[in-house]
Known about the structure:
- This protein is an alpha/beta fold.
- Helices cover 43% and strands 12% of the residues.
- The strands form four sheets. The protein has a six-stranded antiparallel sheet. Strands 7-6-8-9-10 form a five-stranded parallel sheet, sandwiched between helices. A three-stranded mixed sheet has the order 1-2-3.
- The chain starts with 9 loop residues before the first helix and ends in a 7-residue tail after the last helix.
Amino acid sequence: MPPVHGTNQRVADRLLSEGRIGADEHRRAVDHAGRNRARIEDALIELNLVPEGDLLKFIATLHNTRFVSTEKLAKAAIDARVLSRVSPKTASMHGVFPVLLDEAKSVLSVVTADPDNDAALHEVKLGAGVREVRPLVARPAAVRAAIARYYDKNPAPFEALLRPAGGATGDFIDVDLGMGPSPARAASPANRAAPPPPRAQAQTLPGIDQTAPSPHLSTGQTAPSPVGGNGSASPMAGQTQLSAAGTTQVQRSPVPVVAPTPPPPSANISILETHEYIESLNVLVSLLEANRQDLRGHSAAVARLTRRTCERIGLSASHVAAFVVAAYLHDLGKMGAYHLTALNVAEYEGHRVAGLKAVALPAQLMGSVGLPAETVAALSAMYERYDGRGLPHGLAGKEIPLGARVLAVTDTYADLTQNPRNPFRKILRPTEACEVLAGYRGTIFDPNIVDLFRNEVTGDDMRAKLLSERHTVLIVDPDPEETTVLELRLIEQGFEVRVARTVAQAWRELEGGEITAVVSEIDLEEPEMGLALRADALKEPWGRDATWVVLTRKGDRHSAQRAFDLNVDDFVSKPTSADIFAAKLRQLIERRAARSGGRGVSGSLAEMSIPDMVQVLWHGRKTCALRISTRMATGEIYFADGQIVDARWDQTHGEDAFYRMLALHEGEFRLDPGFEPPTGRTITVSPEALLLEGMRRLDEGMLAPH
Length: 706
């Protein structure tokens, strides 16, 4: 917990002053906290001086907030997307643990023993990229136990805390949190009755439900099913919610969600599943790749893609971890002339010969570590082909270990989208890379994994474009040690990153276009050349449009003033938290984009359907015009702060026009972010109501686009 709060004796002092505990009890609690280097709250509970419920209610009242009991926190199943908003390091450093996320309002709720620690909450807010962080009170030991269980997969701390204790007494007004559980992805109306996918076994790929949602926050009780008796979702599905008093409430939510509560984590946790182990691999392997410009960050990218794919399939945590480790290690010892992927090895004789020699190297080099059998199998068979013509053993189909089949796809995709020396000699867009993979489905790659991967990647890429979340950052710094960690963090948070060590390299990157933001040191080859680069860039249109941040070891007032005279967006002194800096950079980019009216996005309805786009723009609270064109006619859907205010299709206006466009499956779309919403609106119902009614009409065959 933050050292500034020490043992937090002020809680005991307040209890004493109000006559809730006696002087002897106060002394015992203070002595116990001092001897055990513990917080006073834990001392009061451990000595049975104050029941946990009463103590938490007392603290929550002092801070005008709510509390969560240890029992309810232990039973909660936290959505992975909620956990990802706060890094394990930040959680441990500040003693906070995320429990709920209202994505529409951009509000993150966290449990903490220090709801008045504004500095810590501000850092969490920046790191999470949300508008507001709401603190809920929990006992310090429970917060630490939650961090250990959900980040480190260690349930032991909770076991020591879960013992009979007194509950809250007296009247307590249970104030609703004002938000439901945060589903990773709300089920689209078109797929609202889809059942959850079965959990896959170690080496088999089950039938894949492309719309299965992710787990959501639960409190250990069974939430009312959102699926009606006829299999259709009720628009007012009940959702289990964590309440202020540690009790469970059911809130009526307008969003249809199908989200099964996952089983509690197993007590048999492998070291491979810990954040520290994976993070160590990430840093070490990324440092090994740092000197290879074309492959910098490659293994980290493959690991991220592998994790997403395995979690989408529904593998157990231990198998996901084993395959992620294989992704980090797959290029170990292969730093030769060729970058070897399943595609390269299958298509080129030189790569095949090199692959045959090198395929066993990663497992051999790590032989003394005792890698899991699943990791070794994935590494040893990643160049096998689905049609049985691969190496080293000519395995075919499901004979190839699942991890190897996943790794073949993710490694090839990362190579095609990041390495300019791939077989096409240019970096491909996500849709282009997925088309390449599809061309080899059933020959080199497992067709089921290709289909799943294509759906996942292209869908996420289009969502990122619609929400303007995908940005290319140029880091200009001569020192690799200074930039490696920042580069890794930016990549992890969804940025595309390029690095220049000299002014000449930076200028070439800038002239090439597509640079959203520049992060530059002041002193490059010569002192203050970074500022000269900024001055020259301001003379070019692309230089004036880019977000520009100075990240430097020079913290003097003169340097800062010169930088701001050149209209930089921010001046940051080293060292700084890479997580916080990445969050701040995204905020600066989005502010600039908002001032300039944003950027347009175009694509095909085959990439993303109209219902999916409506949900993305609705939950993203976008103000824009979605323009649709087909061979038959053209149409528009107008959004204002996420609400649909008007729609036009051919000669039709309002709701009828919207419903007719839902039937479109072919055509093109273009997002116009410069749209100014009209003062009046022809559509007054919510986007959710429109989608539900539209899906009903589609199901009953009532709609046609013309």
